[in-house]
């Protein structure tokens, strides 16, 4: 069977690399005594797939991982068939997860469904500016950025155009009108595309806007999949 786990990644865990996070999930599942399924070949590995890498220091509010098991242990732990069959897995995984890893949801999905990594089409982010900023100036900068036909950038020695990767960029609404504010926190919303060979990154967008990454807190709030694949389940 194939479990799809939605989780948050906060605290010190934000500074864990993508590869190390994979290892953390393996340890978490082992400590929960889940019957992990393994790949074939000379070096069998647990079948665990993370949807998308998250840069170091970024908070993940709705990350997704698929874990394959050889058997369903959840049915034996739920006394009433009308109860949520995923609940035992949530409890088991949370009991063995390290600080900063919070299990939000577990569902069973089709084992034959495509790999998660191939289904990601975009991600949504919230960037919180930790230092005061002129909202009017920032609004003009956003308008100018979105009006650009191209935004040439370079990453790891390769040139690319950032503009097609920005699907949406805006200031999130503030509870008070501008005339009544005395400073306050500013939040930026971004929806960035994930294409083959090119993925939009919030730090690149912030750099174009002249906002140093170290003066912000960035959270990935949602991963968007093709055809709502994250909702595909067998229930």
Order of helices and strands: EHEEHHEEHEEEEEHE
Percent strand equals: 25-35%
* Uncertain runs: 78-82, 230-235
Largest sheet: 9 strands, mixed
Q: Counting H and I runs of at least 4 residues, what is the number of helices?
A: 5
What's the overall average pLDDT, rounded? 88
Helix content: 10-25%
- What's the CATH superfamily of the largest domain, by name? Pseudouridine synthase I, catalytic domain, N-terminal subdomain
Radius of gyration: 20 Å
Query: According to CATH, what is the class of the largest domain?
Result: Alpha Beta
**Which second-level CATH architecture of the largest domain applies?**
2-Layer Sandwich
The tally of strands reads 11
Oligomeric state as shown: single chain
Describe the fold and architecture.
The chain is an alpha+beta fold and 235 residues long. The protein has 2 domains: 117 residues, Pseudouridine synthase I, catalytic domain, N-terminal subdomain (Alpha-Beta Plaits); 106 residues, 2-Layer Sandwich (Alpha-Beta Plaits). The chain contains 5 helices and 11 strands; from the N terminus they run βαββααββαβββββαβ. The strands form 2 sheets. Strands 1, 2, 3, 4, 5, 8, 9, 10 and 11 form a 9-stranded mixed sheet that branches. The chain has a two-stranded antiparallel ribbon with strand order 6-7. The longest helix is centred in the first third of the chain and has 14 residues. The two termini are 13 Å apart.
């Amino acid at each position: 069977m194939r479990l799809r786990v939605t989780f948050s990644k906060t605290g010190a865990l934000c500074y864990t690399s993508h590869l190390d996070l994979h290892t953390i999930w393996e340890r978490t599942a082992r400590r929960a005594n889940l019957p992990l399924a393994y790949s074939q070949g000379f070096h069998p590995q647990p079948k665990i797939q993370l949807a998308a890498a998250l840069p170091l220091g970024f908070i993940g509010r709705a990350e997704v991982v698929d874990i394959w098991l050889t058997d369903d242990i959840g049915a034996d732990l739920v006394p009433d068939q009308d109860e949520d069959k995923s609940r035992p897995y949530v409890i088991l995984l949370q009991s063995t997860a390290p600080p900063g890893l919070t299990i939000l949801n577990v569902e069973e999905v089709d084992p034959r469904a495509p790999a998660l990594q191939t289904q990601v089409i975009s991600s949504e982010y919230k960037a919180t500016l930790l230092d005061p900023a002129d909202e009017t100036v920032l609004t003009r900068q956003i308008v100018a950025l979105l009006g650009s036909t191209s935004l040439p950038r370079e990453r790891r020695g390769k040139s690319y155009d950032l503009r097609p990767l920005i699907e949406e960029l805006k200031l999130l609404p503030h509870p008070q009108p501008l005339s009544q504010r005395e400073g306050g926190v500013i939040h930026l919303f971004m929806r960035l595309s994930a294409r083959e060979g090119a993925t939009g990154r919030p730090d690149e967008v912030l750099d174009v806007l002249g906002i140093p990454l170290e003066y912000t807190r960035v959270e990935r709030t949602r991963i968007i999949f093709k055809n709502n694949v994250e909702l595909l389940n067998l229930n």
